[in-house]
Specification:
- The protein is an alpha+beta fold and 199 residues long.
- Helices cover 20% and strands 31% of the residues.
- It is built from four helices and twelve strands; from the N terminus they run ααββββββαβββαβββ.
- The protein has a six-stranded mixed beta sheet, covered by helices on one side.
- The protein is elongated and about 70 Å long.
């Protein structure tokens, strides 16, 4: 950001226009907005609202940081920011710094992760998007199967209530029908319907 403001160095604060700052800073891929305060005669304070990092988008061997507004912030070295969730898009999906994600499935992953970030008591490792359904894979290895994209807040609230009560051998929690959550082990049968009412 300092490089973006360097051409303004030494200029009079009297003639400085807010549009000059907006043009130079808001266009940066990792900036949401900017405000400033002129402290005459020689000081300009600039306050920047940065994008909130949400996930790492993978396309082939390339990686990109994506914000909670579905904006591509910058390219990354492979393996960087390991604690952020991952999603994968096909190689033919266009991705560029400063772009808003064009891929509908990737945008769906962003919407789900924003909700999960605020309501799920576990870290998400990756997002799977088989067809119209969404599955969150937690760092613990448990899959949270959300089904289709409706009632997501309710589904995530049910998942948040049920996850702490799962048995150690559970490998998934299916909340696609939120009033009938089902937990189980993908290698074992049968499935167990989980009672969401506290004892």
């Amino acid at each position: 950001m300092a490089a973006a403001l360097e051409p303004l160095e030494g200029r009079s604060l009297v003639g400085l226009q807010a549009t000059d700052l907006d043009r130079r800073i808001v266009g940066l891929p990792d900036v949401v907005g900017v405000t400033h305060d002129r402290a005459f005669p020689h000081t300009l304070r600039v306050y920047v609202l940065p994008e909130r990092a949400l996930l790492v988008l993978r396309r082939g061997d390339e990686s990109w940081l994506v914000s909670a507004r579905a904006r591509v912030v910058r390219s990354l070295e492979r393996g960087a920011l390991a604690m952020l969730p991952r999603i994968w898009v096909p190689r033919d999906v266009e991705v560029g710094a400063g772009d808003t994600l064009s891929d509908a499935r990737a945008r769906r992953a962003v919407r789900v992760l924003v909700l999960a970030h605020n309501g799920l008591p576990a870290q998400v490792h990756s997002v799977r998007l088989p067809g119209p359904e969404t599955t969150l894979v937690l760092r613990s290895g448990i899959e949270v199967r959300l089904g289709r994209e409706h009632d997501l807040q309710l589904k995530l609230a049910v998942a948040a209530a049920v996850l702490p009560r799962l048995s150690d051998d559970s490998t998934y929690l299916d909340v696609a029908v939120p009033d009938r959550p089902v937990a189980g082990n993908a290698q074992a049968q049968p499935q167990v319907e989980v009672d969401t009412v506290e004892d």
